[in-house]
Predict the structure of Carbohydrate ABC transporter membrane protein 1, CUT1 family.
Amino acid sequence: MLRKLTPYLFVLPLLGFMAVFTYIPILQSVNLSFREWDFMSPTKPWVGLDNYRLLLSTRDFWNSLKVTAVFALISVPLRLALALAVASFLIRETAVSRITRGAIFLPTVTSTVSIAVVFSWVFSTDYGAINGFLKMLGFDKVSWMQDPELALYVIIFVNTWKQLGYDVIIYTAGLQAISMEYYDAAAVDGGGRFHVFRRVTFPLVMPTTYFLLVISVIDAFQVFTIVDVMTRGGPAGATDMIVNMLYRVGFTLFDIGTGSALAVLLFIFLIALALVKARVIGRRVHYDS
């Protein structure tokens, strides 16, 4: 009996940690989403589905959902395509490749706040480096973060720059796991580079792509720090992500019930999206190489 219980005793501290800091807060958020609370009131009256009705009837919610969806639809394919291309060039184990991979990975482990502050200076209208360069070329200044048509693309660029290194490392590992026998067989058949990539490399790296797709979509729907530092959701709500709205409602307006309802809706949406991806894309992923 003790031998059978030993593995569970080893993981018990981790399970306790996850219960206290993950599972219990999730259940508490679900409970608070049906109540009205402002952090200070000693009572938390039950309001049923009123918080959800309020969210679904507000323009801010649908705007933040649209902005987040557009952000995900652009940034996720961009990240994966760039990462696969870069990893394909850096797959060889040379000194230059290892140094380049380390340099590309460095932004991933750098403070997000620091990166956002630096790029706020880079894209500044009055004293930014990019506008300074454009001025040298004779062009007018561009209001990168004040223009509703451009601000979201600036956020996409900064987020892609920060996360690209992680994707490159994972793709490099996936590419290195592919047996050279497949490439030798393709070479014997006279396959060109594009044909080999389309028929050999891409199908065999699909498990890695699927993993990164799931992680990238979740990350896209949880973007907060870059937006909060660089644009605060502006201008005119052009970069107002779901999590930024959640923070504003819950911790600025102190409407904990509505904020919890928004968190629950985001959780349900991500779970549903993961199930759809597993059903549509997961069936096409083969884990034998």
Observations:
- The first helix runs from residue 2 to 32.
